[in-house]
């Protein structure tokens, strides 16, 4: 795996090959798998993502927090501010998260709690840019590599570094993938990583009742918007003052400083709000009625 | 490096909603199913720590029962596991338990029975869908079932391990890890062997022919 974003970008420039080919070679070298095996496995992940997207809006899903049932459906209405395409991408991301909570089969990316962002963004971008399935596959490789680099330098776990490490990283993976799909340069891919992570730096993990529902489902929506936003900015020529690798390092340092209450324990932030506590009591009741 | 491959980051395909509390819980049930040698007729499942606190919301109970039926974490039948268990006459009961401070906060103890045999397993879900099997029938274990693993119980006498290793070598498979755990009073030992390749049925049959061997199971992943 590449050391950091600077390492990936410099190898791509030096070898003068498309980024996805550099990634295929590296993956093949470290895992001993052939290019075909790698691409087949990536395609399988994409197939599962597409299935979860398609099935997400067809199932009658029962969730333990009644207030969030079918919230995604509201995003199917006519757009007001953000345009039909992005509104639909948000609907997809939310419905995948609902599907996951209804025990649907999903592909964790990088985690189950942030699994709506990557599929929603990458398949919407494919539709908007009229790209082939092969383009999507190549973009997948770029996004996944960005996730692995961040995971190695920082974290992919809400219990370690807060939601910035889940929704934040998913957003960086999705944004870099679609920037690549749109023909972005290696430097622009790096800019997307910096911009996405900066925007969600410090995001805490405070799930109500410890479940992957509130605020997780709606945070997948900001992950989608953030991915499109950063890709649009970077492709338009906006650059981050702080380089991607320094943002990743800052993210880990911020994560380490987050108190335990704000790292997936369900004891702080929104989980500790009066409504959050009420919902927790409603679901889990008192300690006495747990046996059945 | 924590992540050598892109598929460590994208590609864990699973039934939601939680990698640790749903996928990990199912895997502990699934490995228990294999080590028991099939579906139990009766299972008592003790939930420890965080599992006891939040199992309902994460459907950990549904996932564990699915695993005990032999479903893997990405099996679409998992949501219907309670109903399937009833159809197949598998009884199960959940209890909250404090297994003690030595166990990971996400731990489960499963006691499985048929009219002929009984077996208990303790497993922990350590995050991201990864698990660790900690105990089998009171004998200390410590494998994660991420690579093909043979688990076997044999008489605790000298030379058995050498026999096992030589049988494995005949099949031209590399052993990546091998561990042994003994119960001196009962004069039995358990070993688990992690391999670099899928475990063929012929290898398991060959291992069963070792005279001191009591039980052999293969976890292919």
CATH class category label of the largest domain in chain B? Alpha Beta
How can the largest sheet of chain A be summarized? none
Number of domains of chain B: 2
CATH architecture title of the largest domain in chain B: 2-Layer Sandwich
How much strand of chain B?
35-45%
Q: So, CATH architecture of chain A?
A: Orthogonal Bundle
CATH level-1 class of chain A: Mainly Alpha
Rg value of chain A: 19 Å
List the helices and strands and how they pair.
The complex is a heterodimer of chains A (292) and B (221).
Chain A: H1 5-15, H2 19-31, H3 35-56, H4 84-101, E1 105-108, H5 117-129, H6 133-153, H7 158-161, H8 167-181, H9 186-199, H10 216-236, H11 244-257, H12 274-284
Helix pairs in contact in A: 2-6, 3-4, 4-5, 4-10, 5-6, 5-8, 5-10, 6-8, 8-9, 8-10, 9-10, 9-11
Chain B: E1 12-15, H1 19-36, E2 42-49, H2 50-58, H3 60-68, H4 81-87, E3 91-96, E4 106-113, E5 118-127, E6 130-136, E7 139-143, E8 149-155, H5 160-170, E9 175-183, E10 188-195, H6 201-208, E11 213-219
Parallel strand pairs in B: 2-3
Antiparallel strand pairs in B: 2-4, 4-5, 5-6, 6-7, 8-10, 8-11, 9-10
Helix pairs in contact in B: 1-3
């Amino acid at each position: 795996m590449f050391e950091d974003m600077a390492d990936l970008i410099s190898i791509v420039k030096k070898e003068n090959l498309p980024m996805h080919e550099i990634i295929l070679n590296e993956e093949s070298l470290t895992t001993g798998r052939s290019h075909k095996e790698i691409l087949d496995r990536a395609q399988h992940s994409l197939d599962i993502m597409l299935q979860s997207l398609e099935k997400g809006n067809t199932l009658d899903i029962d969730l333990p927090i009644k207030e969030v049932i079918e919230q995604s459906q509201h995003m199917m209405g006519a757009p007001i501010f953000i345009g039909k395409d992005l509104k639909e991408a948000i609907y997809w991301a939310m419905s995948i998260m609902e599907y996951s909570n209804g025990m649907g089969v999903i592909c964790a990316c990088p985690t189950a709690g942030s699994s709506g962002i990557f599929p929603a963004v990458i398949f919407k971008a494919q539709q908007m840019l009229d790209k082939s399935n092969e383009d999507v596959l190549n973009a997948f490789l770029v996004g996944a590599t960005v996730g692995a680099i961040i995971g190695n330098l920082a974290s992919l776990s809400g219990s370690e570094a807060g939601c910035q490490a889940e929704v934040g990283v998913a957003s960086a993976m999705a944004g870099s993938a679609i920037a690549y799909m749109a023909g972005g340069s290696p430097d622009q891919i790096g800019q997307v990583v910096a911009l996405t992570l900066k925007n969600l730096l410090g995001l805490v993990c405070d799930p109500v009742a410890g479940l992957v529902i509130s605020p997780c489902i709606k945070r997948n929506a900001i992950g989608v918007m953030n991915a499109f936003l950063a890709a649009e900015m970077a492709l338009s020529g906006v650059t981050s003052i702080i380089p991607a690798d320094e943002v990743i390092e800052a993210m880990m340092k911020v994560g380490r400083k987050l108190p335990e209450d704000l790292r997936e324990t369900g004891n702080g932030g929104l989980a500790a709000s009066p409504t959050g506590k009420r919902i927790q009591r409603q679901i889990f009741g008192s300690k006495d009625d747990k046996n059945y | 490096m924590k992540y050598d491959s892109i598929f460590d980051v994208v590609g864990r395909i699973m039934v939601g909603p939680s990698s640790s509390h749903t996928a990990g819980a199912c895997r502990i049930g699934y490995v228990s199913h294999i080590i028991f040698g099939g579906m139990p007729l009766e299972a008592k499942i003790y939930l420890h720590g965080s599992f006891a606190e939040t199992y309902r919301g994460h459907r950990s109970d549904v996932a564990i029962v699915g695993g005990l039926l032999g479903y893997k974490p990405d099996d679409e039948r998992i949501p219907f596991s309670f109903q399937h268990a009833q159809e197949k006459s598998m009884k199960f009961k959940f209890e909250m338990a404090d297994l003690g401070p030595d166990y990971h906060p996400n731990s489960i103890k499963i006691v499985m029975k048929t009219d002929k045999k009984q077996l208990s397993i303790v497993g922990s879900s350590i995050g991201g869908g990864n698990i660790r099997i900690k105990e089998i029938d009171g004998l200390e274990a410590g494998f994660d079932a991420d690579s093909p693993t043979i688990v076997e119980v044999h008489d605790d006498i000298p030379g058995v391990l050498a026999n096992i290793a030589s049988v494995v070598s005949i099949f031209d498979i590399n052993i990546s890890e091998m561990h042994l755990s003994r119960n001196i009073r009962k004069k039995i030992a358990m070993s688990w062997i992690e391999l670099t390749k899928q475990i063929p049925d012929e290898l398991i049959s060959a291992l069963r022919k070792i005279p001191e061997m009591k039980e052999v199971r293969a976890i292919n992943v």
